[in-house]
Design brief:
This protein has 119 residues and is mainly α. The protein folds into two domains: 57 residues, no CATH class; 60 residues, no CATH class. The chain has five helices and two strands. It has a two-stranded parallel ribbon. The chain is globular and about 40 Å long.
Length: 119
């Protein structure tokens, strides 16, 4: 799931978690692995009971599966372009995310440590 929002903040993260939990089957619990961005662990963050947030070590982008996703999106969709304003930026980001297949997403984010904890 992806939301394109105009800012990154505790409020935006709370909105994301609200939408994310609605997409979960009622009998499932999700574990989200996050970097230590301030809005990921803020006291004001509203985390639903069916979600557990697990912070990665500080300054460890090599452990963060989403880093490879951002690199892929930049290299294949978002670099070497001039975008005219906010609406074009949002459209380009949406187009890039919508082009991802489940298989591509898995191949980009399937870190060795994730394989160990999910097998």
């Amino acid at each position: 799931m992806c939301l394109v929002l105009p800012e990154v903040s505790t409020a935006a993260m709370s909105v994301f978690l609200t939408h994310f939990v609605r997409a979960l089957p009622a009998d499932q619990h999700a574990v989200l692995v996050l970097d230590q961005a301030g809005w990921h662990g803020a006291k004001a963050l509203q985390v639903p009971d069916t979600i557990t947030l697990v912070p990665l070590q500080a300054y460890s982008p090599e452990l963060n599966p989403v880093e490879r996703l951002w690199l892929y999106l930049r290299e294949h969709f978002l670099s070497h372009r001039v975008l005219e304003g906010y609406d074009e930026i949002v459209a380009a980001c949406c187009q890039a995310f919508n082009a991802l297949t489940p298989e591509r997403l898995r191949s980009l984010t399937n870190q060795p440590w994730i394989q160990k904890v999910t097998s």
